[in-house]
Amino acid sequence: MGEELTDSSVDETGQSFDDNLIHDVSFEEVEHPISDGNNTGAKPRRLFDIPRSTPTEEGLARVVTVTNQKGGVGKTTSVINIATHLAMRGARILVVDCDAQGNCASGLGVDKSKTTITTRDVILTPAISIQARHATAVEGLHLIVGDHNLVGVEEALAAQLGRERRLVEALAPLRPHYDLILIDTAPSMSIVSVNALTASDGILIPVQTEYLALEGVALLMGTIQEVRRLLNSSLGVDAVMMTMHAPTLLNTQVAGHLREIFGNLVLEPPIRRNIRLAESPSQGVPIQFHAPQSHGGQDYSLLASELEALWFPGGLRT
Fold first, then answer.
1. In angstroms, rounded to a whole number, what is the distance separating the alpha carbons of residues 130 and 126?
2. What CATH architecture is 62-311?
3. pLDDT tens digits, residue range 44-66?
4. C-alpha–C-alpha distance, residues 175 and 144, integer Å
Protein backbone atom coordinates (compact mmCIF):
# COMPACT_ATOMS: atom_id res chain seq x y z
CA MET A 1 0.00 0.00 0.00
CA GLY A 2 1.09 3.54 -0.58
CA GLU A 3 1.71 5.92 2.29
CA GLU A 4 -1.18 8.12 3.38
CA LEU A 5 -0.65 11.81 2.88
CA THR A 6 -1.20 13.96 5.96
CA ASP A 7 -0.98 17.63 6.82
CA SER A 8 2.23 17.16 8.76
CA SER A 9 5.76 16.19 7.74
CA VAL A 10 8.89 15.09 9.52
CA ASP A 11 12.26 16.79 9.04
CA GLU A 12 15.67 15.12 9.18
CA THR A 13 15.80 15.36 13.00
CA GLY A 14 12.54 13.50 13.38
CA GLN A 15 10.58 16.57 14.46
CA SER A 16 7.25 17.20 12.78
CA PHE A 17 6.00 20.50 11.45
CA ASP A 18 2.64 21.56 10.19
CA ASP A 19 2.27 22.28 6.47
CA ASN A 20 -0.47 24.72 7.34
CA LEU A 21 2.19 27.03 8.72
CA ILE A 22 3.88 27.33 5.28
CA HIS A 23 2.52 30.13 3.17
CA ASP A 24 3.41 31.32 -0.32
CA VAL A 25 4.87 34.81 -0.42
CA SER A 26 3.15 37.25 -2.73
CA PHE A 27 4.26 40.71 -3.85
CA GLU A 28 2.07 43.60 -4.77
CA GLU A 29 3.30 46.48 -6.89
CA VAL A 30 2.42 49.87 -5.47
CA GLU A 31 2.77 53.03 -7.51
CA HIS A 32 4.00 55.95 -5.45
CA PRO A 33 3.34 59.53 -6.45
CA ILE A 34 6.31 61.51 -7.79
CA SER A 35 7.78 63.64 -5.04
CA ASP A 36 8.52 67.32 -5.49
CA GLY A 37 12.01 66.69 -4.07
CA ASN A 38 11.32 68.14 -0.61
CA ASN A 39 11.58 66.13 2.59
CA THR A 40 12.30 62.90 0.79
CA GLY A 41 14.97 61.86 3.26
CA ALA A 42 17.31 61.04 0.37
CA LYS A 43 20.98 61.48 1.08
CA PRO A 44 22.91 63.92 -1.12
CA ARG A 45 25.21 62.40 -3.71
CA ARG A 46 28.61 61.57 -2.24
CA LEU A 47 31.11 63.63 -4.22
CA PHE A 48 34.55 62.49 -5.26
CA ASP A 49 37.37 63.77 -3.12
CA ILE A 50 38.51 66.18 -5.81
CA PRO A 51 41.85 67.93 -5.24
CA ARG A 52 41.88 71.42 -6.73
CA SER A 53 44.91 72.65 -8.62
CA THR A 54 47.12 75.53 -7.53
CA PRO A 55 48.57 78.46 -9.51
CA THR A 56 51.66 77.99 -11.65
CA GLU A 57 54.99 79.39 -10.54
CA GLU A 58 55.61 82.81 -12.07
CA GLY A 59 57.60 82.73 -15.31
CA LEU A 60 56.99 79.04 -16.03
CA ALA A 61 54.56 77.33 -18.39
CA ARG A 62 51.57 75.67 -16.81
CA VAL A 63 51.78 71.92 -17.44
CA VAL A 64 48.39 70.27 -17.95
CA THR A 65 47.72 66.61 -18.69
CA VAL A 66 44.57 65.81 -20.66
CA THR A 67 43.52 62.38 -19.47
CA ASN A 68 40.74 59.90 -18.79
CA GLN A 69 41.19 56.19 -18.10
CA LYS A 70 38.47 55.41 -20.63
CA GLY A 71 39.42 55.54 -24.29
CA GLY A 72 37.51 57.24 -27.09
CA VAL A 73 36.40 60.32 -25.14
CA GLY A 74 38.09 62.90 -27.36
CA LYS A 75 41.39 63.51 -25.55
CA THR A 76 43.55 63.99 -28.63
CA THR A 77 40.93 66.04 -30.47
CA SER A 78 40.66 68.30 -27.43
CA VAL A 79 44.44 68.70 -27.09
CA ILE A 80 44.81 69.65 -30.76
CA ASN A 81 41.97 72.16 -30.86
CA ILE A 82 42.46 73.77 -27.45
CA ALA A 83 46.18 74.21 -28.17
CA THR A 84 45.40 75.70 -31.59
CA HIS A 85 42.84 78.17 -30.31
CA LEU A 86 45.15 79.44 -27.57
CA ALA A 87 48.13 79.66 -29.92
CA MET A 88 46.07 81.69 -32.39
CA ARG A 89 45.34 84.10 -29.54
CA GLY A 90 49.04 84.63 -28.87
CA ALA A 91 49.89 81.91 -26.35
CA ARG A 92 53.13 79.96 -26.70
CA ILE A 93 52.08 76.31 -26.58
CA LEU A 94 53.96 73.01 -26.50
CA VAL A 95 52.05 69.75 -27.01
CA VAL A 96 53.71 66.58 -25.73
CA ASP A 97 52.19 63.44 -27.22
CA CYS A 98 52.44 60.63 -24.67
CA ASP A 99 50.07 58.33 -26.56
CA ALA A 100 51.62 55.52 -28.61
CA GLN A 101 49.05 56.14 -31.36
CA GLY A 102 50.78 59.44 -32.09
CA ASN A 103 47.69 61.12 -33.50
CA CYS A 104 48.64 64.63 -32.44
CA ALA A 105 51.14 64.74 -35.29
CA SER A 106 48.49 63.93 -37.88
CA GLY A 107 46.10 66.53 -36.51
CA LEU A 108 48.75 69.25 -36.44
CA GLY A 109 50.29 68.65 -39.86
CA VAL A 110 53.55 67.02 -38.72
CA ASP A 111 54.99 64.14 -40.74
CA LYS A 112 55.92 61.47 -38.18
CA SER A 113 58.09 59.62 -40.67
CA LYS A 114 60.53 62.55 -40.73
CA THR A 115 60.94 62.87 -36.96
CA THR A 116 64.12 61.56 -35.39
CA ILE A 117 63.47 62.36 -31.71
CA THR A 118 60.16 61.33 -30.15
CA THR A 119 58.56 61.33 -26.72
CA ARG A 120 60.09 57.94 -26.04
CA ASP A 121 63.60 59.37 -26.55
CA VAL A 122 62.79 62.34 -24.34
CA ILE A 123 61.63 60.12 -21.46
CA LEU A 124 64.67 57.85 -21.75
CA THR A 125 67.10 60.77 -22.21
CA PRO A 126 65.56 63.96 -20.75
CA ALA A 127 68.52 66.14 -21.72
CA ILE A 128 67.55 66.03 -25.43
CA SER A 129 64.07 67.54 -24.94
CA ILE A 130 65.07 70.88 -26.47
CA GLN A 131 65.97 69.16 -29.75
CA ALA A 132 62.73 67.14 -29.80
CA ARG A 133 60.36 69.99 -30.66
CA HIS A 134 58.74 70.34 -34.10
CA ALA A 135 56.94 73.29 -35.65
CA THR A 136 53.32 72.67 -36.62
CA ALA A 137 50.78 74.14 -39.02
CA VAL A 138 49.92 76.67 -36.28
CA GLU A 139 52.27 79.55 -35.51
CA GLY A 140 53.41 79.52 -31.88
CA LEU A 141 52.47 75.86 -31.40
CA HIS A 142 55.18 73.20 -31.14
CA LEU A 143 54.94 69.43 -30.78
CA ILE A 144 56.99 66.61 -29.32
CA VAL A 145 55.85 63.64 -31.38
CA GLY A 146 54.63 60.37 -29.91
CA ASP A 147 54.71 57.06 -31.76
CA HIS A 148 54.33 53.30 -31.35
CA ASN A 149 57.77 53.02 -29.73
CA LEU A 150 56.27 54.39 -26.50
CA VAL A 151 54.92 50.90 -25.88
CA GLY A 152 58.43 49.69 -24.98
CA VAL A 153 59.23 52.44 -22.48
CA GLU A 154 57.96 50.48 -19.49
CA GLU A 155 60.47 47.69 -20.07
CA ALA A 156 63.30 50.11 -20.83
CA LEU A 157 62.77 51.94 -17.52
CA ALA A 158 62.10 48.88 -15.39
CA ALA A 159 65.48 48.82 -13.64
CA GLN A 160 66.04 52.59 -13.44
CA LEU A 161 65.62 54.75 -10.35
CA GLY A 162 63.39 57.82 -10.49
CA ARG A 163 61.67 56.56 -13.62
CA GLU A 164 58.41 58.37 -12.73
CA ARG A 165 60.15 61.77 -12.88
CA ARG A 166 61.80 61.56 -16.30
CA LEU A 167 59.27 63.91 -17.90
CA VAL A 168 59.73 66.39 -15.03
CA GLU A 169 63.41 66.55 -15.93
CA ALA A 170 62.71 66.80 -19.65
CA LEU A 171 60.23 69.69 -19.35
CA ALA A 172 62.26 71.74 -16.85
CA PRO A 173 64.41 73.55 -19.47
CA LEU A 174 61.35 74.11 -21.71
CA ARG A 175 58.93 75.63 -19.22
CA PRO A 176 60.40 79.16 -19.24
CA HIS A 177 59.84 79.39 -23.01
CA TYR A 178 56.11 78.56 -23.12
CA ASP A 179 52.86 79.70 -21.57
CA LEU A 180 51.27 76.26 -21.59
CA ILE A 181 52.44 72.67 -22.04
CA LEU A 182 49.60 70.26 -22.89
CA ILE A 183 50.23 66.53 -22.53
CA ASP A 184 48.11 64.00 -24.40
CA THR A 185 47.96 60.55 -22.78
CA ALA A 186 46.77 57.04 -23.54
CA PRO A 187 43.75 55.70 -21.59
CA SER A 188 45.90 53.10 -19.82
CA MET A 189 47.77 54.11 -16.67
CA SER A 190 51.27 53.15 -17.85
CA ILE A 191 54.61 54.50 -16.65
CA VAL A 192 54.33 57.11 -19.42
CA SER A 193 50.99 58.36 -18.08
CA VAL A 194 52.36 58.39 -14.53
CA ASN A 195 55.27 60.50 -15.81
CA ALA A 196 52.76 62.93 -17.31
CA LEU A 197 50.80 63.27 -14.06
CA THR A 198 53.98 63.64 -12.02
CA ALA A 199 55.12 66.50 -14.29
CA SER A 200 51.78 68.33 -14.27
CA ASP A 201 50.34 71.26 -12.36
CA GLY A 202 46.80 70.32 -13.28
CA ILE A 203 44.55 67.88 -15.11
CA LEU A 204 41.88 68.50 -17.74
CA ILE A 205 39.40 65.61 -17.89
CA PRO A 206 37.37 65.08 -21.08
CA VAL A 207 34.27 62.99 -20.41
CA GLN A 208 31.90 61.68 -23.05
CA THR A 209 28.35 62.26 -21.90
CA GLU A 210 27.52 58.57 -21.60
CA TYR A 211 27.33 56.48 -18.44
CA LEU A 212 30.26 54.18 -19.22
CA ALA A 213 32.54 57.21 -19.42
CA LEU A 214 31.79 57.97 -15.76
CA GLU A 215 33.59 54.75 -14.80
CA GLY A 216 36.81 56.07 -16.29
CA VAL A 217 36.45 59.21 -14.17
CA ALA A 218 36.04 57.16 -10.99
CA LEU A 219 39.22 55.20 -11.79
CA LEU A 220 41.08 58.41 -12.55
CA MET A 221 40.16 59.96 -9.19
CA GLY A 222 41.81 57.03 -7.44
CA THR A 223 44.92 57.36 -9.61
CA ILE A 224 45.18 61.09 -8.90
CA GLN A 225 45.11 60.43 -5.16
CA GLU A 226 47.89 57.85 -5.46
CA VAL A 227 50.06 60.17 -7.56
CA ARG A 228 49.48 63.00 -5.07
CA ARG A 229 50.44 60.76 -2.17
CA LEU A 230 53.57 59.28 -3.71
CA LEU A 231 54.88 61.55 -6.47
CA ASN A 232 53.29 64.99 -6.90
CA SER A 233 51.49 66.43 -3.88
CA SER A 234 50.44 69.59 -5.76
CA LEU A 235 48.60 67.79 -8.58
CA GLY A 236 44.98 68.91 -8.89
CA VAL A 237 42.03 68.99 -11.27
CA ASP A 238 41.80 72.12 -13.43
CA ALA A 239 38.51 71.35 -15.14
CA VAL A 240 36.15 68.74 -16.59
CA MET A 241 34.94 69.10 -20.18
CA MET A 242 32.03 67.27 -21.79
CA THR A 243 32.61 65.75 -25.23
CA MET A 244 30.65 63.97 -27.99
CA HIS A 245 27.46 65.50 -26.69
CA ALA A 246 24.07 65.08 -28.37
CA PRO A 247 20.65 66.43 -27.38
CA THR A 248 19.36 63.03 -26.20
CA LEU A 249 17.82 62.21 -22.84
CA LEU A 250 20.77 59.96 -21.93
CA ASN A 251 23.40 62.57 -22.78
CA THR A 252 21.46 65.23 -20.90
CA GLN A 253 21.18 63.03 -17.81
CA VAL A 254 24.90 62.25 -17.78
CA ALA A 255 25.73 65.93 -18.24
CA GLY A 256 23.51 66.66 -15.25
CA HIS A 257 25.35 64.04 -13.16
CA LEU A 258 28.69 65.56 -14.10
CA ARG A 259 27.56 69.05 -13.09
CA GLU A 260 26.22 67.63 -9.82
CA ILE A 261 29.44 65.78 -9.01
CA PHE A 262 32.04 68.30 -10.18
CA GLY A 263 30.18 71.57 -9.71
CA ASN A 264 31.95 74.60 -11.14
CA LEU A 265 34.83 72.46 -12.42
CA VAL A 266 32.62 71.53 -15.40
CA LEU A 267 33.28 73.74 -18.42
CA GLU A 268 30.57 74.99 -20.74
CA PRO A 269 29.56 74.43 -23.43
CA PRO A 270 29.67 70.68 -24.08
CA ILE A 271 31.46 69.77 -27.32
CA ARG A 272 28.72 68.56 -29.65
CA ARG A 273 29.09 65.54 -31.91
CA ASN A 274 30.26 66.85 -35.25
CA ILE A 275 31.46 65.11 -38.41
CA ARG A 276 33.77 68.04 -39.18
CA LEU A 277 35.82 67.24 -36.07
CA ALA A 278 36.34 63.72 -37.35
CA GLU A 279 37.32 64.98 -40.81
CA SER A 280 39.91 67.57 -39.80
CA PRO A 281 42.77 65.15 -38.86
CA SER A 282 42.59 63.65 -42.35
CA GLN A 283 43.33 67.13 -43.67
CA GLY A 284 46.27 67.55 -41.27
CA VAL A 285 44.79 70.69 -39.71
CA PRO A 286 42.74 71.55 -36.59
CA ILE A 287 39.02 72.28 -36.82
CA GLN A 288 39.72 76.05 -36.87
CA PHE A 289 41.37 75.69 -40.27
CA HIS A 290 39.02 73.03 -41.63
CA ALA A 291 35.55 74.20 -40.56
CA PRO A 292 35.65 77.01 -37.98
CA GLN A 293 31.90 77.70 -38.25
CA SER A 294 30.90 74.09 -37.60
CA HIS A 295 29.48 73.06 -34.24
CA GLY A 296 32.87 71.63 -33.30
CA GLY A 297 34.69 74.80 -34.29
CA GLN A 298 32.30 77.03 -32.37
CA ASP A 299 32.25 74.84 -29.27
CA TYR A 300 36.03 74.57 -29.01
CA SER A 301 36.36 78.32 -29.51
CA LEU A 302 34.04 78.99 -26.57
CA LEU A 303 35.71 76.31 -24.46
CA ALA A 304 39.16 77.75 -25.19
CA SER A 305 37.94 81.12 -23.93
CA GLU A 306 36.93 79.51 -20.63
CA LEU A 307 40.31 77.80 -20.33
CA GLU A 308 42.19 80.99 -21.23
CA ALA A 309 40.48 82.78 -18.34
CA LEU A 310 41.24 79.83 -16.04
CA TRP A 311 44.90 79.31 -16.98
CA PHE A 312 45.87 82.94 -17.64
CA PRO A 313 43.79 85.04 -15.24
CA GLY A 314 46.25 87.93 -15.56
CA GLY A 315 46.39 87.69 -19.33
CA LEU A 316 48.99 86.11 -21.60
CA ARG A 317 52.62 87.11 -21.21
CA THR A 318 53.89 89.56 -23.80
1. 9
2. 3-Layer(aba) Sandwich (3.40)
3. 444 567 888 888 988 999 999 99
4. 14
